[in-house]
Design brief:
The structure is a single chain. With about 70 residues, the protein is an all-alpha fold. It has one domain: Orthogonal Bundle (Arc Repressor Mutant, subunit A), CATH 1.10.10. The chain is built from four helices and no strands. The longest helix is centred in the C-terminal third of the chain and has 22 residues. It is globular, with a radius of gyration of 14 Å. This is PucR family transcriptional regulator. InterPro entries: CdaR-like_regulators, PucR_C-HTH_dom, PucR_C-HTH_sf. It holds the Pfam family HTH_30.
């Protein structure tokens, strides 16, 4: 998740690698794994938008489950 966000926010494998303090091949491998698991390619803008939307939904769902119940 962190790698995907770093890549989408920077728009660059090299910049994402710098932000994550890892080799650019590590970022490429992680993005390939995202593609393999989801069928969405983070390098394709429409697919990246879908992945980010899903991550946002996940964050919202987790935030909602952490809220105190009345």
């Amino acid at each position: 998740v962190e790698t995907l966000l770093a890549y989408v926010n920077s728009g660059s494998v090299s910049l994402a690698a710098q932000q994550l303090y890892c080799h650019r091949n590590t970022v490429l491998n992680r993005l390939a794994r995202v593609h393999q698991l989801t069928g969405y390619d983070p390098a394709v803008p429409a697919d990246a938008a879908t992945l980010i939307a899903v991550l946002n939904c996940r964050v919202q769902a987790q935030a909602g489950s952490d809220a105190p119940r009345s």
